[in-house]
Amino acid sequence: MNTSLSWIKAYVPDLDVSAQEYTDAMTLSGTKVEGYEKLDKDLDKIVIGQIKKIEKHPDADKLIVCQVDVGTETVQIVTGAPNVKEGDKIPVVLDGGRVAGGHEPGQKVAGGIKIKKGKLRGVESNGMMCSIEELGTTREMYPEAPEYGIYIFPEDAAVGESAVKALGLDDAIFEYEITSNRVDCFSVIGIAREAAATFRKEFRPPVVTPTGNDEDVNGYIKVTVENPELCPRYCARVVKNIKIGPSPKWMQRRLASVGIRPINNLVDITNYVMEEYGQPMHAYDLDTIAGHHIIVRNAKNGDKFTTLDGQERDLDEDVIMICDGEKEVGIGGIMGGENSMITDDVKTMLFEAACFDGVNIRKSSKRIGLRTDASAKFEKGLDPNNAQAAIDRACQLVEEMGAGEVVGGMVDVYGKKKEPVRVPFDARKINLMLGTELSEGEMLGYFKMLGLEYDAEAKEVIAPTFRQDLACLADLAEEVARFYGYDNIPTTLPSGESTMGKLSYKLRIEEAARDIAEFCGFSQGMTYSFESPKVFDRLMIPEDSPLRRTVDIMNPLGEDYSIMRTTSLDGMLTSLATNYNRRNKDVRLYELGNIYLPKQIPLTELPEERMQFTLGMYGEGDFFTMKGVVEEFFEKVGMKKKEVYNPDSGKPYLHPGRQANIVYEGQVVGYLGEVHPEVADTYGIGERAYIAVIDMPEIVKNATFDRKYTGIAKYPAVTRDISMVVPKSVLVGQIEEVIEKKGGSYLESYKLFDLYEGAQIKAGFKSVAYSIVFRAKDKTLEEADVSAAMKKILKALEELGIELRQ
Amino acid sequence: MKEKLEQIKAEAIAQIQAAEVPEKLNDVRVKFLGKKGELTAVLKGMKDVAPEDRPRVGQMVNDARAAIEALLEESRAKMENAIREQKMKEEVIDVTLPSKKNIMGHRHPNTIALEEVERIFIGMGYEVVEGPEVEYDEYNFEKLNIPADHPAKDEQDTFYINKDIVLRTQTSPVQARVMEQGKLPIRMIAPGRVFRSDEVDATHSPSFHQIEGLVIDRQISFADLKGTLEVFAKELFGTETRTKFRPHHFPFTEPSAEMDVSCFKCGGKGCRFCKGSGWIEILGCGMVHPHVLEMCGIDPEEYNGFAFGVGLERIALLKYEIDDMRLLYENDIRFLEQF
């Protein structure tokens, strides 16, 4: 929504503020000004001059030398303009002044062009006469300006005065951001009402006087509304003996100032009233309306209709149509039809000011693919009571401008009249809500400025129908706050019962995950929650995998963002690949993000969101580096039991010989491995890459931040080293399992200290050496204590096919 | 006897003084004080001394021994000192050589900003809670006073899973979920991922983060809202920061406001950063709408409160002067390593 300052001043005549003051104050009272453009920002030292004498330039055929009276003196100006004659009053930019641009439209220069005196072909020139374009504006704003040449003022212009003021260019155009609740502010009058209240000035809306001749409009037109729920009101008036012509300059200028191109008096009036009152109107050629009967009904599926822009539109049964006795003549609230449009030889015209259901218009306009100035207003949901005011205002303008003869009366199809809402008022409660101590009188004063009446007896504020945003006390509190000033409300802190500030347990564990990952050199990445269904093929996930059961987005941004991820791998691998492509070395990343697992398809309840702690790396480090990070993390969150790595994890996207499920207390809590070379290829990662994915809900279940001191050993430890020849198929994990199981109560720890495969060892075997430590809490161990345990261990190892090396 | 002792002593002193290394001192010790040393020999000869002279002679021997020992000790200390000094002289290092660092990872700027915000609100007694990212339409819209036909529900803004389930477009549904639990008073913030149907560019992303705040108690006022958010702004952007509240409209709060902070780059004078205005828009807020309270089972006559919502990326971009939102989701290590 745009308005010029001068248009606002038309209804708030006492308003005397700069554009910046207006912007600041309006924004603080709730009508946000996004920005403004001062029409004279690049204009300087421009006055009205009068040409006293014109002579030919001695050395140039196309130039003339003018003596120009600029009020204080007469200056000589050389020009090439073809349209000036002696006696003309013209805008003159004096030496040292500025104009906004060149002569041709669209040649505006940022900051303007400085004009200095100089010589043109040897003849002195002390300024410049200006075209309308040089003044930074257009012939749309100033239709009287010549197409080519200098702007010429009317004869009564005062020589020496500011040309900028005389043209009304000492104005600014404001652009507003109007919130959806303030439908009334999508009109100049609505904004002017706010401006008057903001600056505590009198609001003087247009006075609409009765219009029309002695005839009765009912003799001209009949209106039937078949779908009153979608068209709560339809007002129609008729104008005959139409005289098409240009609209007055002031109206053209106001329309042009908000970006609407003036066309002719009738079109301009409908557009003007739409801006002024916020009520779109439509004009039909009454002679094209069959049976002089307007019927409002819904279109039928498959109907086609040609709008006045010549385009054929596809309709459906939810579109509101304006029809006559035989045919459709317009799409209600969106655009009229080609078949009923006003042409230059229109004789009698039907004015329509209707109210259509906003939601319907918004949706229809989207389905049809046609959004117009009218539909943009209707979709906000207009006040039906405004329709009559607007149509009467239009007829008043028709009469004032001599555009035709208005027929008496109005056809008004209006079902249940919209009545003002009464809102109980309680000053004490408003003060409590705001933290203020305002008197009831002050509050009522604000309401009055806004056109809200007060019923003192019932203690109710009566909100006019154009203020459909006012329904409860909190709404009234906002009106008080806006005009008392948000900035004047004190600042306090909530009192009352104290509460405990904390992170949830889950978030504490995630914090620990971040700490450990970063400690181990991994940086935190973030990737999207939605991805392409193609990721499953990229990850070589089989067709029947449950991972392919996804939560799908109905209206995604594209296939690449169309499913909610069921694995966090794609994001991680893509990020690693991005880094690899950019030649970043030794990259380590982690992410904490959800996967989304549907409980059933189609979805009838929310999917399960499982937080995944995903680590990925390439460059320095290997599988065991990754394994170390996992174990550091488990230790950090108090998961002290020994985790088991099960190589039968069956992840198709991982190297078949280098992957494992991480099992804790018998439960798979994640997995890790080397990325399958084919998958790495697909993603474009040209090195071995490793990933680990930890399922955080399982961690939250097992984690604890409890710690207990177990004492420091007082008695010496006994260490036994064993060296073994082990069949290759036996995992060291199995050896460790044996040591743990058979080590007895004195077993303190064990450590792999040598692993060798190669020439010295017989084929199919490897050499493994462990150091095993025993210790008792309460005594120094005897040889016999240790030997007994060792015997059990060795026996069990032998059962695995392991030979003890001597 | 006396002369003999004096002579031994003099000889020992001479030899101690002549010693150049600690080993020589040891030799001296053995030679004079050892079991077969010269001084020990004198003691052994005590049996030849008249009994009445023995204490005096004994004393003399001990004195001589003490003198030699003291000198030995002094010389040894001096020598060791000199050796240590020499050794350290040879051990001088170039302290400007590169350090040995454990390579640490870096936290995402979003998380750093979030932790700052969490720290501030936890300090004011707020609990950090979460809600689902895939959410019922009912919580994302209806319980927040956004009825079925509200433009905010348009497909162009919201990703739909089906007619009842959406990707939440805001963290505000967590408000409704927490209020419904009925544990009062409430002071909470709810950070999390939200989704809007925006194409990716330098300032838009279809997935981003918000932090929701909610306070429900008896007698909460708009002044409390202003005070709380002012503390927040000063903590986050510096004590010099000023705040400005402008009326705005959100369906789930009334009165509603947007909060601007004075530009922390230019201090409010106006610069490229704040587009010349001196102010930067930071968050939306307001008093929880009585309808919302009712829908969540809270009696608006007894309780009320305020709510606010901050865009996490917006804070991260502003605070760390990141000029393109896409950087946040590319995970280029050269970007992440700067935080």
Q: Number of DSSP helices of chain B?
A: 12
In the CATH scheme, what's the topology name of the largest domain in chain B?
BirA Bifunctional Protein, domain 2
Mean pLDDT of chain A: 94
Strand elements of chain B, count: 9
| Cα radius of gyration of chain A in angstroms | 42 Å
Computed CA radius of gyration of chain B, to the nearest angstrom: 42 Å
CATH class category label of the largest domain in chain A: Alpha Beta
What is the helix content of chain A? 25-40%
Kindly report how far apart the N and C termini of chain A lie: 93 Å
Total domain count of chain A: 6
Give the class of chain A from helix and strand content and strand pairing. alpha+beta
The CATH homology group name of the largest domain in chain B: Bira Bifunctional Protein, Domain 2
How is the quaternary structure best described? heterodimer
Distance between the termini of chain B: 85 Å
CATH architectural category of the largest domain in chain A:
3-Layer(bba) Sandwich
What percentage of amino acids of chain B are in beta strands? 15-25%
In total, how many domains does the architecture of chain B comprise? 2
Lateral arrangement of strands in the main beta sheet of chain B? 1-4-5-9-8-7-6
Give the total of beta strands of chain A: 41
The residue fraction in helices of chain B comes out at 40-55%
Strand order of the largest sheet of chain A: 28-32-33-37-36-35-34
Task: Outline the structure in words.
The complex is a heterodimer of chains A (806) and B (339). Chain A is α+β, with helices and mostly antiparallel strands. Chain A folds into six domains: 2-39 and 172-198, Phenylalanyl-tRNA Synthetase, Chain B, domain 1 (2-Layer Sandwich), CATH 3.30.56.10; 44-166, Nucleic acid-binding proteins (OB fold (Dihydrolipoamide Acetyltransferase, E2P)), CATH 2.40.50; 217-414, Phenylalanyl-tRNA Synthetase, Chain B, domain 3 (3-Layer(bba) Sandwich), CATH 3.50.40; 422-487, Phenylalanyl-tRNA Synthetase, Chain B, domain 1 (2-Layer Sandwich), CATH 3.30.56.10; 505-702, Bira Bifunctional Protein, Domain 2 (BirA Bifunctional Protein, domain 2, 2-Layer Sandwich), CATH 3.30.930; 718-804, Ferrodoxin-fold anticodon-binding domain (Alpha-Beta Plaits). The N and C termini of chain A lie far apart (93 Å). Chain A is elongated. In chain A, the strands form ten sheets. Chain A has a seven-stranded mixed sheet with strand order 28-32-33-37-36-35-34, sandwiched between helices. In chain A, strands 3, 4, 5, 6, 7 and 10 form a six-stranded antiparallel sheet that branches. Chain B is of the alpha+beta class and 339 residues long. Chain B folds into two domains: 2-90; 109-336, Bira Bifunctional Protein, Domain 2 (BirA Bifunctional Protein, domain 2). Helix content of chain B is 41%, strand content 19%. Chain B is built from twelve helices and nine strands. Chain B has a seven-stranded mixed sheet with strand order 1-4-5-9-8-7-6, sandwiched between helices. A two-stranded antiparallel sheet of chain B has the order 2-3. Chain B is rod-shaped and about 125 Å long. The interface between A and B is large, with 88 and 82 residues. β27 of chain A pairs parallel with β1 of chain B, so a sheet runs across the interface.
